[in-house]
Amino acid sequence: MVFIDNITTIVGVTVFVTLAIRLYIRVTQTFAQVEGCTMEGRTILVTGGSDGIGKATVKLLAAKRARVIIACRNVEKGAATRDEIIAATGYSNISVMKLDLSSLQSIRTFVREFKQEEHRLDVLINNAGILAPAKKTITEDGLELTYATNHFGPFLLTNLLLDLLKKTGPGRIINVSSVVYTMGSIDFDNLCAERSYSSYTIYGHTKLANILFTKELSQRLQGTGITVNCLHPGTVRTALLNYRPHLKVISFIFGSLFWKDPEVGAQTSLYLAVSGEVNGVTGQYFDNCRPVVPSAKARDDGVARKLWEVSEKLTGLAQ
């Protein structure tokens, strides 16, 4: 009887704590205050727009009547996402283009075709990203796959699109980072996993790189009318763990109970893309639609500058 009472108590406490956490998450969720804002006539590019936060971002932007381009590796999946959003919103000004951010050639091909088809770019949302695979994977360009997809690819893509952004101007660049950056560091002797590889830490390294890239780029774009900011979307139920199948069970359990829906995770991206409150705001890190000060390692000018220079060389931008 005592055993049953103990089990009942444990179950009761567990249920209470779970409900309390879920209530806290719900009441602290922030939604972008962009009612009345329209993006009609504006062109927005969303990388990784076929799934997860990116898909939710595309849908929210379509509701604001922006022309949205979904850039993704799997164009069939992207087309299915486009068709689903059109059916849900009745808005059809959405296109899909192939882009593999782990391939420098794919990025250059994409930019060439994008500039041939599009005559303006108002907002670039670097949303795509992957969690590190269990085993080290080196791309055709000699880059580690996670770093290539999460940092080097967006670095090259952004730089190759700057002329169109400036021509269209004023414009916005939005980089989706993560609070996981706090577990990251920048080791310039191991950016391509030359010495060691840890699938559990390299994602954090790339998210720190996103913030440092944002910081350096914002300084280089001063006076151009182009702003650049980054954000933490929160812990969101997405397909990010597809690269780590054994974590899917954890994702299912905790995701169902505690993690944000993609639409909630997309709110800060929507806010930074649409809101007039951030006109002229640049070089900032946002969480829940509010600017927050990142840790000292994410504000290191010297590391940010060196990372830029190294990235130029590794992506061929400096040639």
From TrEMBL:
Alphabetically ordered keywords of this record: Membrane, Oxidoreductase, Transmembrane, Transmembrane helix
Gene3D superfamilies to which the protein is assigned, alphabetical: NAD(P)-binding Rossmann-like Domain
The keyword Cell division is assigned to this record: no
GO molecular function: oxidoreductase activity
Taxonomic superkingdom: Eukaryota
Presence of the UniProt keyword Transmembrane in the record: yes
Membrane-spanning ranges: 6-25
SUPFAM superfamilies attached to this UniProt entry: NAD(P)-binding Rossmann-fold domains
Pfam families: adh_short (PF00106)
Entry's family note: Belongs to the short-chain dehydrogenases/reductases (SDR) family.
Record's protein name: Retinol dehydrogenase 14
